[in-house]
Design a protein that fits this description.
- It is a single chain.
- By secondary structure, the chain is of the alpha/beta class.
- It folds into two domains: 289 residues, NADP-dependent oxidoreductase domain (TIM Barrel); 62 residues.
- The chain is 36% helix and 15% strand.
- The protein contains 14 helices and twelve strands.
- The strands form three sheets. An eight-stranded parallel barrel has the order 3-4-5-8-9-10-11-12, surrounded by six helices. Strands 1-2 form a two-stranded antiparallel sheet.
- Helix 1 packs across helix 2 and helix 12 packs across helix 14.
- The longest helix has 14 residues.
- The protein is globular.
């Protein structure tokens, strides 16, 4: 298992995490088996947004059997009322639900997330009222280590990434969602058909990844498989099927992403996701799938897939392009991005202009031209 730093939290999280939404309910034996298997394979981060006390309890029991091995994401505002899940900002409901969740994980949760904020008005209300005051108090008391937020809306995520309290974001990422504009309606992500003309990444999402990288705000990924739709050519908006390994690799090549919280219901599904760790370049290759898709191509845009390698001069082209794109998002090149770029042993300025890489790019990116632009921008 590979581990990545979650922004500036300092936490090292497994690049494949456990999004526990689809685990087998309140079956303690099955949940313990699943958690134990994931842990043995190196998974060390788990998300618990589920509100049902019975479900929380069995997951907590399984995690607490080896509590020191796990980093837990718990959610403020996911409550169980009248026998059903209710998202709320009513502190009379938020506080007891949170205390009950906290008790399931031994009285301490590493990442305390403000749950499911998909409108700017709601975000602003949370950050100006008793909700954030309570969350801050929990951090001050040591019951959580870091404050985060979960959202599907890039506008909210952008606002959060510029908010000092927010240290990490749980965000919905996959190649289909990345082409959709911001919306306050989660159902918009799962439409049967997307409107025509969505042929490149939504600029707000590109801006979000760049800003998080710049500000040290780590991202954990939810909805990496679009509810399984990406695995079916009939249901996928691309008209072609992807594999779990390809979808995971897409997410992990986005700037600032630390962990993909994949959902699995049993050990077999867990093993299928964890196959990523032993997969070769061909198995991880999502670019060939997207380039050959009949709909929504990324033509002309670098998506950091690495098909252009090897470079005759030894340049890591995908990484150079990533830093170039991050720098382009700002009026001035951020010092952190410049430092990362200058730390590369071989830089864009070493490009000979041979363009031997360009026929390998599935998306027709003018790589030699971009190397010249990057060299000019960074001065090296």
């Amino acid at each position: 298992m590979n581990y990545r730093r979650l922004g500036e939290t300092g936490l090292m999280v497994s690049e494949i995490g456990f999004g526990a939404e689809w685990m087998p309910g309140d079956d303690q034996e099955m949940v313990s088996e699943l958690v134990g298997f994931a842990m043995e394979k190196g998974v060390n981060i788990v998300d618990c947004w589920m509100a049902d006390p019975a479900v929380r309890k069995v997951l907590g029991n399984a995690v607490c059997a080896h509590r020191d091995k796990w980093i837990v994401q718990g959610h403020f505002g996911a409550t169980w009322q009248n026998g059903q899940y209710t998202r709320t900002r009513d502190m009379d409901a938020v506080i007891p639900a949170w205390e009950e969740l906290l008790s399931c994980f031994g009285g301490h949760i590493e990442l305390g997330l403000i749950h499911f904020v998909d409108s700017l008005a709601e975000f602003d209300g949370i950050m100006a009222g008793p909700f954030i005051e309570y969350v801050r108090a929990e951090k001050g008391a040591g019951r959580i280590d870091h404050i985060g937020i979960s959202t599907h809306n890039p506008e909210v995520a952008l606002r959060a990434a510029e908010t000092p309290d927010i240290e990490m974001i749980m965000f919905s990422i996959n190649p289909a969602f990345d082409m959709l504009p911001a919306s306050e309606e989660l159902d918009d992500l799962f439409k049967e058909e997307y409107q025509p003309g969505l042929e490149s990444m939504d600029p707000q999402r590109k801006r979000l990844y760049a800003l998080c990288e710049e500000n040290g705000v780590g991202i954990t990924v939810m909805k990496p498989f679009a509810g399984g739709r990406l695995f079916s050519a009939e249901k996928s908006p691309f008209g072609v099927a992807m594999t779990p390994v390809q979808a995971v690799h897409y997410c992990l090549t986005r700037p600032a992403v630390a962990s993909v919280l994949a959902g699995f219901r049993d050990v077999g599904e867990c093993a299928g996701c964890l196959a990523y760790e032993g997969a070769g370049d061909e198995e991880k290759d999502y670019a060939s799938i997207l380039a050959g898709a009949p709909q929504h191509a990324y033509f002309g845009n670098c998506i950091y897939c690495g098909h252009c390698q090897p470079c005759t001069a030894g340049i890591d082209i995908a990484t150079v392009n990533k830093y170039y794109d991050l720098a382009q998002m700002q009026d001035e090149v951020p010092a952190s991005v410049r430092d990362h770029y200058l730390a590369l042993e071989v830089r864009a300025g070493d490009c000979t202009g041979c363009a031997a890489c360009e026929p390998n790019c599935p998306f027709g990116v003018p790589i030699a031209e971009r190397m010249a632009e990057a060299a000019a921008l960074f001065g090296a």
